[in-house]
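[09:14] KT: can someone run the structure on this one? pasting the chain below
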Amino acid sequence: MYDWLKQALKTEYTPVRLLKESDRGSVRVVRHNVTGRRFVLRCFTGNGEVYQKLLGYACPNLPVVYEAVAKGEENLVLEELIQGDTLNFLLQGALFTPAETRNIVIQLCRGLWALHSLGAVHRDIKPENIILRGADAVLIDFDAARFHKPELETDTRILGTTGFAAPEQYGLSQSDCRADIYSVGILMNVMLTGEHPSKKLVAGKLGRVVQRCTQVNPKKRYQNVLRLMEAL
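[09:31] RB: done, structure tokens below
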């Protein structure tokens, strides 16, 4: 299946532009030669189990995954191209209001609830990985995502973005859905103040929500995204 898709991508699709490239792989926009439709093609080394689990899964706050195949640790993923601006891009122009932040984060929580319900943890929530598509906030990029495995004490691979990743993602314990809640708290504070909460904590009730999300001890955070949505 992997070799078939790799060949099909060469003959049936045309590369349009490179979105991202790193030691682990690349992300490109490709166009289908017959329909003209555009997709995102991910080629990366690592664990692609979460993409395979998301095949055909429908959630307005997650991209649709159309193909996900692996050969050893090499992965090819063909997914929906989300048209819109990332939070990272929008934050370069202005901060978000409390009402805008609540709306976006509640939608993000809906996407995370779908992901967490499958037993997966995203592990890389940050402004670059959230796109506003009209009124919808869409969480993208599951390259660092993994399934929570109760029998393990720590994550098998340390991945995440410094400043947003929860402490347990650095080998202290195994990350679960509460690691994503930690990152959401950091994200909220950045959306509202432009700063990490360790430098400038947003005032008022939202500041208390951020503090609860970003407790070092996972047991002191909101225990799932539904509780966080209730608080918002």
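[09:33] KT: thanks! Residues 213 and 221 are 5 Å apart (CA to CA).
[09:34] RB: yep, looked fine to me
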